[in-house]
Design goal:
The complex is a heterodimer of chains A (about 500) and B (about 100). Chain A is an alpha/beta fold. Chain A contains 15 helices and 11 strands. Classes of the chains: A alpha/beta (about 500), B mainly alpha (about 100).
Chain lengths: ~500, ~100
């Protein structure tokens, strides 16, 4: 039997069902792995050692007595991004302003995971309030890439992706506002899904940009991601933007035939900004899709070059409004440097927020302010419509789009931190899906000469997650990517 | 169009943020660079294009409603648990009336 921490969720489920391993043994082996390597990777902000073991013991007792309801994630320990609220467990958003915040309720995804029998292993590091592409914007510490500790794991869900890649957790949840699940999944050699906007409830996801935010799973395989999505998807009366559509059978439909599918390759996604090794790896993967019987067609996404500007106007605008709630009154940090209510607000926010969060609040306030609203916010919202039209046109011709997840390989820690615009440009291939609301899946398609992971992205029309996972699974099997040794 | 320090200070005021002079200088530089990049959007023709204000096009746009019935909510003590300062059953803030 291989090490438990290297197993897929599917394998762990089988072990539990056949009683070859107890839930306690499984939970202990992930906690042991965390103790062994998280000092180097720093994926976790909070580890729930004792509560996780207590829950494991309880599940073991229930399994032994036959009382277990046998949810489809019974006994599976999971890592949750620290911007998803967990009742009684500190939730910081990697921000000083929420350093000691203990939520009085669970996010809907948490109640659903608990209902499925999953165990909370801990809360993972991220860029502060999910604003960033490297996890360097965490107020506490940066997370490191498990394939090369000198490099970033991507972001903002860098802790979730790194934890899964390193075998500290068999699966995790992240959130994706402009690529925050897919980009770290690509940088860490894991699979990450941003579902269609509204497929998964956002209740209890600390709001960054409400028209773009979406919770999604990270795993070591497409089928594990399907299992996790199955547990969290569905409409929720607590989130009026969640979609009132039935949830498909993601797990059951994963092995469908993919022959005859039409896959579009947007020519604008293979421009001069794309790293040569990534392009080469993608071209080889596209050949594999042809080998599976899919037809490959070139399509055009003409607004691609405007996606970053559009996103970095709309997302900060929404953020400036959402983050107005941090005022030091009801929860979070309150500054001692105050003489009246107004100075309390200013000091609290200035001490509590980090540089990137302040920058985005400022950009957002600016683009919404009188005199600039039409030139920036309305203009960007119109370009958003045009970008959405690009997808409409493309999906008239093809079933899916394929392209890179990131323009570059994982970069060195500190390399881009001083240049915010350069960091923003890293999101060029991920933000369009958020602006349009469609689902996107990143999966590993190879490793560079330096041994760094390369991610491939598949995108589908609204609510086509079942077919997207089906195609991703088929491609993953065809690619059979061999992973080099981890750095930990 | 170069942004002036004075203007950035005004935005900070609106956003309830403050910066020390050094921070402000660095900030104005980055702000300038980012706004400069945004000017690329001027090249996009958006004459009669409608602005997108919905995340997913075509999904039901009406706000779902429910019956106006009292439902359980957080107990006051729990809601106050995370408050930096509270007194009896309310959040405490610095005086707002002289």
């Amino acid at each position: 039997m291989s090490d438990i921490h290297q197993m897929s969720i599917k394998q762990l489920r089988d072990l539990i069902q056949s009683r070859e391993a107890s839930v306690t043994e499984i939970t202990e082996s992930f906690l042991k792995r965390i103790r062994q390597c998280d000092g180097k990777i720093k994926a976790f902000l909070t580890v729930q050692e004792e509560p996780a073991l207590a829950q494991a013991a309880q599940l073991d007792r229930q399994l032994a007595s036959g009382e277990s309801k046998n949810g489809h994630l019974t006994g599976i320990p999971l890592a949750i991004k620290d911007n998803i609220v967990t009742q009684g467990v500190r939730t910081t958003c990697a921000s000083r302003i929420l350093e000691n915040y203990i939520p009085p309720y669970d996010a809907t995804v948490m109640s659903r995971l608990k209902g499925s029998g999953a165990i909370l292993l801990g809360k993972t590091n991220c860029d502060e309030f999910a604003m960033g592409s490297s996890t360097e914007n965490s107020a506490f510490f940066p997370t490191r890439n498990p394939w090369d500790l000198e490099r970033v794991p991507g972001g903002s869900s860098g802790g979730s992706a790194a934890a899964v890649a390193a075998g500290e957790a068999p699966g995790a949840l992240g959130s994706d506002t402009g690529g925050s699940i897919r980009q770290p999944a690509a940088f860490c050699g894991t699979v990450g899904l941003k579902p269609t906007y509204g497929r998964v409830s956002r209740y209890g996801l600390v709001a960054f940009a409400s028209s773009l935010d979406q919770i999604g799973p990270v795993g070591n395989s497409v089928s594990d991601v399907a299992l996790l999505l199955q547990a969290i998807a569905g409409s929720d009366p607590q989130d009026s933007t969640s979609a009132a559509r039935p949830v498909e059978d993601y797990v059951g439909e994963i092995d469908q035939e993919v022959k005859g599918l039409k896959i579009g390759v947007p020519k604008e996604w293979f421009g001069s900004g794309l790293d040569g090794q990534i392009e080469q790896s993608l071209r080889a993967a596209i050949k594999k899709l042809e080998g599976l019987g899919c037809s490959i067609l070139e399509v055009s996404m003409p607004q691609t070059e405007y996606a970053i500007s559009t996103y970095y106007i709309i997302a900060p605008a929404e953020a400036s409004s959402n983050l107005a709630r941090y005022d030091g009154v009801r929860y979070g940090h309150r500054s001692a440097d105050q003489t009246d209510l107004d100075s309390m607000f200013k000091s609290t926010r200035s001490e509590g927020f980090g540089e990137e969060v302040k920058r985005r609040i400022m950009i957002g306030t600016y683009v919404l302010s009188s005199g600039y609203y039409d030139a920036y916010f309305i203009k960007a919202s119109k370009v958003r419509t045009l970008l959405r039209n690009d997808y409409h046109e493309a999906f008239k011709k093809v079933d899916f789009l394929v392209g890179p997840t990131t323009p570059s390989l994982p970069f060195k820690i500190g390399e881009k931190k001083t240049d915010p615009l350069e960091m923003y440009l890293m999101d060029v291939y991920t933000v369009p899906a958020n602006l349009a609301g469609i689902p996107g899946l990143s999966l590993p398609c190879g490793f560079s000469q330096e041994g760094l992971p390369i991610g491939l992205q598949l995108q589908a029309p609204y609510f086509q997650e079942a077919r997207l996972l089906n195609l991703g699974h088929a491609l993953e099997e065809a690619l059979a990517v061999e992973k080099p040794e981890l750095a930990v | 169009m170069p942004i002036e320090t004075r203007e950035v200070e005004k935005i900070a005021e609106l956003a309830h943020l403050k910066f020390d002079p050094q921070e402000l200088e660095r900030f104005v530089g980055h702000f300038q660079q980012i706004l400069e990049y945004f000017t690329q959007l001027e090249a996009v023709s958006t004459g009669d294009v409608e602005a997108a204000h919905q995340a997913v096009e075509g999904e039901k746009l009406a706000t779902p409603t429910r019956k106006d019935e009292v439902r359980p909510s957080l107990p006051v003590a729990t809601a106050l648990d995370n408050a930096p300062e509270s007194s009896e059953d309310h959040f405490q803030v610095p005086p707002v009336i002289e």
